[in-house]
């Protein structure tokens, strides 16, 4: 049936577009944008291609589908009754990969926020936004404090070095005057 086929193809094409910018993801982005956060999306250069990247806050956000990424205890994560072993193994592999990505990004200095798709449903959306926003701000403050800490340490090091040189110069002068 050619009509069915073209429908299938259209459906496939739509699904492909959908996977680039899924609706829940857009909702989250828009909410963050309205709160004044600026971000980049789908940054391929970063490990795991995070959905949202907030460079100023050293924060990346992943929006995880509850089934594929295995949202433990979530009603949307139920292993099908058939091919149970296959699905369990598949989701476990995804979970493992997610954790690896998460750990490596953290090692690179990024804070990682995971948002589950079920957390973007209408009834809980506002709560989720609150949680995400406070996490982002906290990360920003943490990053800022670290930056200031490094700056202060550098300043102290430089002034110590300067004082040391001054002392050396003074004792050299003293030694010279003693020789004269
Ligand atoms: Zn879930």
Describe this protein's structure.
The protein is α+β, with helices and mostly antiparallel strands. The chain has a single domain, classed as Endonuclease, Chain A, CATH 3.40.960. It has four helices and four strands; from the N terminus they run H-H-E-E-E-H-E-H. It has helices at residues 2-20, 23-34, 84-107, 122-179, and strands at 40-41, 52-54, 59-64, 111-116. Strands 1-2-3-4 form a four-stranded mixed sheet, with helices on both faces. A hairpin with a 4-residue loop joins strand 2 and strand 3. The chain is elongated, with a radius of gyration of 26 Å. It starts with a helix and ends with a helix. The model has no long low-confidence stretch (mean pLDDT 87). Zinc ion binds at residues 66, 71, 74, 76, 116, 118.
Question: Which features would summarize this protein structure in a list?
Answer:
single chain, 4-stranded mixed sheet, Endonuclease, Chain A, 180 residues, 9% strand, binds zinc ion, 4 helices, 63% helix, alpha+beta
